[in-house]
């Protein structure tokens, strides 16, 4: 039986500051905490106020993946392969942090990155270990307009966020943190997934939450 090792790091990242803590927690295949983890993603329905940012979560997720791989290749490390199940797991965690206003590797149900990925363990390609980096970058609202649902007549307010430098800032600050850099530049990782979501506004600013999981 392989021991599943989880290497996790935590950062509270603003535009110019980073904080990290490294934790190592062993778990086994018989760990009962992971039995009920959900890994399917179902986008929430439209609310009366909707926050969006261009180019959107999916594009930003791929940008993080591509730029992290570029950073690895510059140091003669292999690229990680995108995994859709890990992407679903990480986006759910980013959304949960934003919706419930917390920032941690362990969610409010007490589930760790290992717990959250366990339900799709075979699909993730994770056989030995999982690592996680988190970031929160604040974006300002740059525009607001309204759209009408033609079927229901409901009017929605759309907040458009300035996304400039979000990916570059997150990666730069991960590199400045020893524990995040160690996760990002671990040559043994083979697969990855990235999830991005927008949290609740604080005045005119919105938190952009980024979760990246690595597996081997």
Walk me through the structure.
- This protein has six helices and eight strands, in the order E-E-E-H-E-H-H-H-E-E-H-H-E-E.
- Strands 1, 2, 3, 4, 5, 6, 7 and 8 form an eight-stranded mixed β-sheet that branches.
- Residues 1-48 have low confidence and may be disordered.
- The protein is of the alpha/beta class.
- The longest helix has 18 residues, at 57-74.
- The protein has helices spanning 57-74, 84-100, 113-118, 121-124, 166-176, 178-184, and strands at residues 4-11, 20-27, 49-53, 81-82, 129-148, 155-161, 191-198, 205-215.
- The radius of gyration is 17 Å and the shape is globular.
Q: How is the secondary structure organized here?
A:
Blueprint: E1 4-11, E2 20-27, E3 49-53, H1 57-74, E4 81-82, H2 84-100, H3 113-118, H4 121-124, E5 129-148, E6 155-161, H5 166-176, H6 178-184, E7 191-198, E8 205-215
Parallel strand pairs: 1-5, 3-6, 4-7
Antiparallel strand pairs: 1-2, 5-6, 5-8, 7-8
Helix pairs in contact: 1-5
């Amino acid at each position: 039986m392989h021991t599943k090792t989880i290497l996790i790091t935590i950062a509270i990242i603003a535009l110019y500051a980073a904080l990290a803590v490294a934790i190592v927690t062993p778990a086994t295949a018989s760990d009962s905490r992971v039995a009920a983890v959900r890994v399917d993603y179902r986008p929430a329905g439209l609310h009366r106020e909707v926050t969006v940012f261009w180019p959107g979560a999916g594009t930003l997720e791929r940008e993080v993946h591509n730029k992290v791989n570029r950073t690895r290749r510059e140091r003669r490390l292999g690229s990680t392969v995108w995994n859709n199940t890990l992407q679903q797991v990480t986006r759910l965690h980013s959304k949960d942090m934003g919706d419930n206003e917390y920032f941690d590797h362990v969610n409010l149900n007490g589930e760790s990155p290992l717990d959250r990925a366990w339900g799709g363990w075979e699909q993730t390609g994770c056989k030995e270990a999982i690592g996680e980096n988190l970031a929160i970058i604040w974006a300002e609202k740059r525009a607001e307009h309204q759209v009408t649902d033609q079927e229901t007549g409901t009017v929605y307010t759309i907040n458009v966020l300035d996304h400039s430098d979000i990916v570059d800032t997150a990666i730069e600050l991960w590199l400045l943190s020893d524990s995040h850099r160690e996760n990002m530049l671990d040559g043994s990782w083979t697969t990855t997934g990235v999830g991005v979501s927008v949290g609740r506004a604080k005045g005119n600013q919105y938190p952009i939450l980024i979760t990246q999981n690595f597996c081997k």
